[in-house]
């Protein structure tokens, strides 16, 4: 009985944690993407409109990140205690960037002088880019592997600074920008909508290129990953992924070309994110701190995991339903222009 | 490097980031409750001044809450980056509690915040009030989990220690959550949050009352209303807080006597102990210099009996003593501020009875001067309880020096500098915006965050009025 609980609890929690991380990537992805797109869109009214599409929901989006930290601490202790010291600087930069960006939501609207307006606009844009980039670096470093001995990180402070993880950082910035652009083309009208539709073509192409490169690069990092790609049952799971990527990319570009299609590009981009995420997940499974610590080795005691699981079963559906309600309340197109003056 | 150790910097960094963070949740807890009360009174009485005040303080809430979220985000990762040894050992107990906090509170607050901020014209009064209440309840739930975890570190119960790994394993969750100091701490902190906001509200109202007087006009109905509400809070809650603090003191005496000895600057355990009004505790020579004492008061206050025996620091080995010089003063500043708040409350009662609440500029000036008093007292109280727990992270069981991460000094130094720079920018920005908001007098037909700056309007004006959201989603 305890044997099976010891096996299944971490598996259930790994799936739950993966779901939470994926929800975070989707939700905060598009609102970080909006910050990245400030690079492209300079018009003040348009920038306000872009931020307003997420103003009522961004707090909730970011909460998934806090949940990620807390859940990791609650159920995969060893992962929490080794990943964070190993990624000390990227995590630090990401948090500081998220702080600057988070307060800019309020501050840029309340800034009075053009100087402070300019400063908080840049804090929003720069904070979003750095946060997205660092999330990619964190992901890349994890996939690449962390040096651990006796459940303690033994690498150096700059192990994360590698071509692969930096490239992953770039890939995430591009991916989030595409999410943001397709979100905006769904939620806005007029000139902004048209700009975002145009931008999405380029970003979509860039994203496909980065997906291809990361996919080709990953198996070369570790022999275990290579074996994953060649062994059953992983092969059976992984094989359809590239095919599905191609299909979804087709859907994305079809949606972008059809002026009557508003929601489709966003959904297709989410689909692409799902494929990349699950592809990586299958790749590293069952390791939570590749290449040494599995989800079972990283687990907190079953008493802790059970205690948290009981509540999660009730709370997660509840959270999802009122989050959905909040999105529902603020649904529909946001229009620019004459409402402002 | 300057004789600084990684341990010291890790502690300093944690103190700095928590000290920065704690202000905003306390502000949010008190303010969310105030907003719920204002909206409830508006719905019940239909008096529009309540709604005006609601909208006025809602703008403040949006800034305060955002700063709380982002500074709290840091906390949830800092345990891992700086205190990984502590996290590994206490994680099986604290991890699930923090995860529950996020699930039961943070999501609730964040989920309904949007509706509360921008949704008044979208969802109807009843639902909007429900959203405001949800946000307020969320802040209270969050406080409960955090104080339960914090209290467990002070008075650990319901655990067993795994011999192989040295981890604390949960044995009885009920005892863990409802550990002996939790109820006292919860009440004390909750009241503190209410007082923080009461004095901020009083200070803002006091400033506008003084300004109106200087300009030879009467302050608006809204200003007088909020001043009156804040003074009721001071008159009622401040004395209750003194009682709550007193019972928490008794609880601490029972479970953490060394903390009491340190904050009183007492070295010898004795009956009929005096209470020191002033002194400079000296850890090295095991004495307190320049004492000014009231005979018997120490025993009377701490044990409620003249003959009560109070602990002395010499009862404990040197390496187990909390740092008395800091505690002695943080504790006294907190007490002094608490007493001042009680006096302000009583004075306001007297003036109210005389019908001069709005015509006594001295009271308004004192209220303005005391507006940060709640926060200062809160920070001093927090320093007292946390520094008093030292040199342990889990009281009596896990030392702070055994809790720190194996992080290189340069890493911690870098992050410390980065935190200080970013926090000061953010803090300065936030304070500027709050002061600018406060400088505006709340007035009839007050605009909330959704209307006064049209570009901000994520409310109804923003969205096309044609009922066409489905058309937009058409594929």
List the helices and strands and how they pair.
The complex is a heterodimer of chains A (341) and B (475).
Chain A: H1 2-36, H2 44-52, H3 58-75, H4 77-86, H5 88-110, H6 114-144, E1 148-149, E2 152-153, H7 163-187, H8 190-221, H9 223-230, H10 234-238, H11 240-257, H12 264-284, E3 287-289, E4 293-294, H13 295-298, H14 302-329
Antiparallel strand pairs in A: 1-2, 3-4
Helix pairs in contact in A: 1-3, 1-6, 1-7, 1-12, 1-14, 3-4, 5-6, 6-7, 7-8, 7-12, 8-9, 8-11, 11-12
Chain B: H1 6-45, H2 48-82, H3 84-118, H4 120-123, H5 125-154, E1 159-161, E2 168-170, H6 173-177, H7 182-214, H8 221-255, H9 257-264, E3 270-271, E4 275-282, E5 287-294, H10 297-303, E6 309-310, H11 324-354, H12 361-369, H13 373-387, E7 392-394, E8 398-399, H14 409-439, H15 469-473
Antiparallel strand pairs in B: 1-2, 3-6, 4-5, 7-8
Helix pairs in contact in B: 1-2, 1-5, 1-7, 1-14, 2-3, 2-8, 2-14, 3-5, 5-7, 7-8, 7-12, 7-13, 8-9, 8-11, 9-11, 11-13
3D architecture notes:
The complex is a heterodimer of chains A (about 350) and B (about 475). With about 350 residues, chain A is mostly helical. Helices cover about 80% and strands about 5% of the residues of chain A. Chain A has a single domain, classed as Formate dehydrogenase/DMSO reductase fold, CATH 1.20.1630. Chain A contains 14 helices and four strands. In chain A, a hairpin with a 2-residue loop joins strand 1 and strand 2. In chain A, helix 5 (about 90-110) runs antiparallel to helix 6 and helix 7 (about 165-185) packs antiparallel against helix 12. The longest helix of chain A is centred in the first third of the chain and has 35 residues, at about 1-35. Chain A is globular. Chain B is mainly alpha-helical and about 475 residues long. Helices cover about 70% and strands about 5% of the residues of chain B. Chain B has 15 helices and eight strands. Chain B has helices spanning about 5-45, 50-80, 85-120, 120-125, 125-155, 175, 180-215, 220-255, 255-265, 295-305, 325-355, 360-370, 375-385, 410-440, 470-475, and strands spanning about 160, 170, 270, 275-280, 285-295, 310, 390-395, 400. In chain B, the strands form four sheets. Chain B has a two-stranded antiparallel sheet with strand order 1-2. Chain B has a two-stranded antiparallel sheet with strand order 3-6. A two-stranded antiparallel ribbon of chain B has the order 4-5. Chain B has a domain at about 1-180 and about 410-465. The chains are: A mainly alpha (about 350), B mainly alpha (about 475). Chains A and B meet through helix 2, helix 3, helix 4, helix 5 and strand 2 of A and helix 2, helix 3, helix 14 and helix 15 of B. Chain A: It is found in: Cell membrane. Chain A: Keywords: Cell membrane, Membrane, Transmembrane, Transmembrane helix. Chain A: Belongs to the cytochrome ubiquinol oxidase subunit 2 family. Chain A: It is a multi-pass membrane protein. Chain A: Its main location: membrane.
């Amino acid at each position: 009985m305890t044997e099976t609980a010891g096996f299944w609890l971490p598996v259930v929690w790994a799936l739950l944690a993966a779901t939470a991380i994926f929800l975070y990537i989707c939700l905060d992805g598009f609102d970080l993407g909006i910050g990245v797109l400030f690079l492209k869109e300079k018009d003040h009214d348009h920038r306000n409109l872009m931020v307003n599409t997420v103003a009522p929901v961004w707090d909730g989006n970011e909460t998934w990140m806090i949940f990620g930290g807390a859940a990791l601490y609650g159920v995969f202790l060893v992962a929490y205690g080794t990943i964070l010291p190993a990624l000390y600087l990227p995590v630090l930069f990401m948090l500081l960037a998220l702080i600057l960006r988070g307060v800019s939501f309020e501050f840029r609207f309340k800034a009075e002088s053009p100087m402070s307006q300019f400063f908080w606009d840049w804090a929003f844009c720069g904070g979003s880019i750095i946060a997205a980039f660092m999330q990619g670096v964190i992901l890349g470093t994890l996939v690449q592997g962390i040096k651990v001995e006796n459940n303690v990180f033994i690498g150096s402070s700059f192990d994360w600074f590698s071509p692969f993880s930096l490239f992953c950082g770039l890939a995430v910035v591009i991916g989030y920008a595409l999410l943001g652009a397709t979100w905006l083309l769904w939620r806005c009208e007029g000139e902004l909508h048209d700009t975002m539709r145009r931008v999405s073509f380029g970003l979509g192409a860039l994203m496909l290129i980065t997906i291809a490169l990361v996919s080709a690069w990953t198996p070369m990092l570790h022999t275990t990953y290579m074996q994953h790609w060649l062994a059953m049952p992983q092969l059976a799971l992984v094989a359809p992924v590239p095919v599905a990527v191609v299909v979804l990319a087709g859907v994305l570009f079809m949606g972008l070309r059809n002026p009557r299609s508003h929601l489709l590009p966003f959904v297709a981009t989410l689909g692409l994110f799902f494929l990349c995420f699950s592809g990586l997940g299958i790749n590293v499974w069952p390791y939570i701190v590749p290449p040494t610590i599995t989800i079972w080795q990283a687990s907190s005691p079953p008493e802790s995991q059970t205690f948290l699981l009981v509540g999660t079963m009730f709370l997660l559906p509840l959270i999802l339903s009122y989050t959905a309600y909040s999105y529902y309340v603020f649904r529909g197109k946001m229009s620019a222009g004459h409402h402002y003056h | 490097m300057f004789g600084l150790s990684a341990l010291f910097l890790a502690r300093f960094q944690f103190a700095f980031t928590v000290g920065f963070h704690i202000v905003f949740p306390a502000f949010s807890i008190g303010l969310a409750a105030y907003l719920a009360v204002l909206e409830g009174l508006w719905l019940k009485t239909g008096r529009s001044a309540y709604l005006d005040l609601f909208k006025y303080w809602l703008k403040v809430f949006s800034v305060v809450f955002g700063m709380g979220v982002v500074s709290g985000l840091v906390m949830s990762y800092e345990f891992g980056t700086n205190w990984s040894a502590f996290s590994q050992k206490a994680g099986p107990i604290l991890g699930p509690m923090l995860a529950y906090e996020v699930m039961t509170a943070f999501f609730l607050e964040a989920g309904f915040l949007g509706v509360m901020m921008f949704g008044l014209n979208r969802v109807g009064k009843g639902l909007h009030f429900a959203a405001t209440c949800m946000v307020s309840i969320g802040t209270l739930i969050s406080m409960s989990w955090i104080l339960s975890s914090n209290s467990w570190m002070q008075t650990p119960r319901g655990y067993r220690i795994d011999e192989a790994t040295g981890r604390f394993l949960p044995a009885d969750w009920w005892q863990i959550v409802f550990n002996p100091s939790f109820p006292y701490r919860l009440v004390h902190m909750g009241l503190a949050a209410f007082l923080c906001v009461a004095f901020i509200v009083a200070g803002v109202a006091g400033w506008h009352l003084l300004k109106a007087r200087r300009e030879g006009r009467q302050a608006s109905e809204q200003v007088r209303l909020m001043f009156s509400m804040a003074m009721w809070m001071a008159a009622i809650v401040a004395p209750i807080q003194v009682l709550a603090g007193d019972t928490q003191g008794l609880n601490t005496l029972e479970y953490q006597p060394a903390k009491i000895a340190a904050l009183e600057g007492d070295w010898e355990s004795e009956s009929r102990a005096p209470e020191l009004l002033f002194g400079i505790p000296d850890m090295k020579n095991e004495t307190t210099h320049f004492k000014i004492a009231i005979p018997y008061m120490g025993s009377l206050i701490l044990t409620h009996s003249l003959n009560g025996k109070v602990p002395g620091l010499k009862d404990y080995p040197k390496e187990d003593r909390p740092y008395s010089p800091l505690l002695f003063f943080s504790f006294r500043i907190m007490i002094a501020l608490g007493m001042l708040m009680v006096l302000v409350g009583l004075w306001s009662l007297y003036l109210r009875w005389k019908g001069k609440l709005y015509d006594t500029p001295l009271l308004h000036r004192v209220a303005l001067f005391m507006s940060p008093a709640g926060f200062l007292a809160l920070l001093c109280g927090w320093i007292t309880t946390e520094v008093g727990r030292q040199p342990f992270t889990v009281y009596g069981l896990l030392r702070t020096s055994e809790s720190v991460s194996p992080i290189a000094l340069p890493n911690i130094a870098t992050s410390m500098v980065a935190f200080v720079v970013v926090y000061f920018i953010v803090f300065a920005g936030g304070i500027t915006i709050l002061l600018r908001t406060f400088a505006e007098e709340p007035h009839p037909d007050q605009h909330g965050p959704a209307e006064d700056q049209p570009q901000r309007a994520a409310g109804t004006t923003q969205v096309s009025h044609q009922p066409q959201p489905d058309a937009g989603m058409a594929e």
